[in-house]
Amino acid sequence: MDCNWYPPGGHYGYAELRMLDLGLQQSRLRNSTTHMIKISGRFKFPSLTRLLNSLPAEFDAVADARAWLTLRKRLERPYVTTQIILFAHDFYRRYLQDCYHELELGKESHMEVIYYRKLAELSGANKVIFRFPCNVSPVGFPAHRNRSYTHPSQVMINGIRAIVRQVLPNWWI
Predict the structure, then answer these.
(1) How far apart are CA 147 and CA 150, in angstroms?
(2) Which of 60, 74, 89, 111 is positioned for an S-S bond with 126, CB 3.0–4.6 A?
């Protein structure tokens, strides 16, 4: 089975989340744990422990959302980052498993937007957190540019983001 395949005109998120679902179907740990962390494989997150320690004991989903362009203007297509995202197994199984099939319909091209929409719809009746309580900067190379997250300019940006996250938690820079 080619796990890297995605529909023509689609996005790599299809293959990424399809692989996640196929892996979860075969997981022996899934039935003995309550939650999972989905992390993009090319990154390390040195502050992951800090994030986990700052979360409430019970949650259904934790994602870092990008919904506001400025303090007054919302993004046309809000999204969650999927470099790192956390789910309760039951919640994921009930609401998000197999949602990559929505990309086949062609109405949306990115999983990050689909996840945001689904989580927003479910947030009223579930424990969904849309903003990490602390900055969780990755270490590694992003897919969209050839400059490490440890490049001095990126380290400075991450420091500013960490401060802004405390002062204006819903605003992303």
Answers:
(1) 8
(2) 60
